[in-house]
Amino acid sequence: MSTAFDPAFDLMVERVVPVSAERAWTAWTEPQHVRRWYAPAPGDISECEIDLRPGGVFRFVPRQPDGTENPITCCYLEIVPFRRLVWTNALRPGYRPAPDGFFTAVMTLDPVGDATRCRTVAMHRSEDDRAQHEAMGFHHGWGTVLDQLVTYAPSV
Amino acid sequence: MVTCMAAATVMDDVFRALADPTRRDVVARLTSRSASVSELAEPFQMALPSFVQHLRVLESSGLVRSTKAGRVRTYHLVPQRLRVAEDWLAGQRDMWERRMDRFEAYVTEMPADVVDEGA
Q1: Distance in Å, alpha carbon of A14 to nearest chain B alpha carbon
Q2: Mean pLDDT score of chain A
Q3: How much of chain A, in percent, has pLDDT values that exceed 70?
Q4: What global pTM score does this model have?
Q5: What Cα–Cα distance (Å) separates residue B74 from each residue in A61, A115, B35?
Q6: Domains in chain A: how many in total?
Q7: What is the pLDDT of residues A98-128, one digit of tens each?
Q8: Residue A150: its chain B contacts at CB < 8 A?
Q9: C-alpha to C-alpha distance for A106 and A87, rounded to whole angstroms
Q10: Residue B84 above 70 pLDDT?
Q11: What is the CATH number of the domain that holds A63?
């Protein structure tokens, strides 16, 4: 099933990687690999749990450089080996509705010659929900933003 | 995609402008109040023309604007521009871009005999 892309709430990020779709799939679906890269730098993943089936758990614990840990629990929705992986934090594992979820991610792999195009589309909740999330703490203060920029900017 | 791309371009300009510690310091101080060129330059051991060049970079990014009264040029923060950098969706995009960068680096170097480490 395809989903319409809404630029106001969705984003798409893709990379072409010089490996087979099978290897790329392994990196996305086995905890010992996911732990190695899933946290955006400079953090890392202290724990990762995967039950690779629809309704199964995808749980990971990103750890910030200061040691702060924020576990994120998602539910897999769709699994097409080597092709497509869909998960959300709007549902708990076993499809139980989650009170605080706000995204569904669709990751697709397409062979391109010897390489693989890996595309991730993240769909988010509406503006009102977003505003609420900001009020709940997603909104960064000036100082935090500048601190993050200090970290991010050298790589620009 | 237009909205995302426009936001991403603006964000690139903002991040680039803030990629320098001198410019970050200027922005940080302008968050509390507007200041003249000489006030802003005062803490730095830097030739004035070099410092003024930093101010130009900040101004072209839209992060600050300046007004001139007599011989004194005063710089002001443009909060809307800095807010672009903290826009929620832009933040999510930044997270995914950095995550995919790591994915790309990791999967490229992943051992050929993908061994289960039991982790």
Answers
A1: 7
A2: 81
A3: 77
A4: 0.59
A5: 46, 54, 5
A6: 1
A7: 988 889 999 999 999 999 999 999 988 765 5
A8: 21, 24
A9: 7
A10: no
A11: 3.30.530.20
CATH number among 3.90.1150.10, 1.20.1090.10, 1.10.10.10, 3.30.390.10, domain B2-108: 1.10.10.10
| Residue B119 with chain A: CB contacts under 8 Å | 31-32, 35
Is residue A146 a part of any domain in this protein? no
Which ipTM score applies to this complex?
Answer: 0.75
Q: What was the pLDDT predicted at A98?
A: 93
Domain annotation covers residue A153: no
Q: Does B6 touch chain A (CB under 8 A)?
A: no
CB of A124 less than 8 A from some CB of B: yes
Q: State whether B101 and A41 contact (CB < 8 Å).
A: yes
DSSP state, residue A97? B
A76 Rama sector, left if φ>0, alpha if ψ -120 to 50, beta otherwise: beta
In angstroms, the CA A41 to CA A152 distance is 9
Range(s) of the domain holding residue A110:
10-125
Q: For residue A52, what pLDDT is reported? A: 98
A51 within a domain of the structure (yes/no): yes
Q: How many CB atoms lie within 10 A of CB B18?
A: 26
Count Cα atoms within 13 angstroms, Cβ side, for A69.
9
pLDDT, one tens digit per residue, over B31-76 is 778 999 999 999 888 999 999 999 999 999 888 999 999 999 999 9
The dihedrals phi and psi of A147, each to the nearest 5 degrees, come to: -60, -45
- What is the reported pLDDT for B113? 60
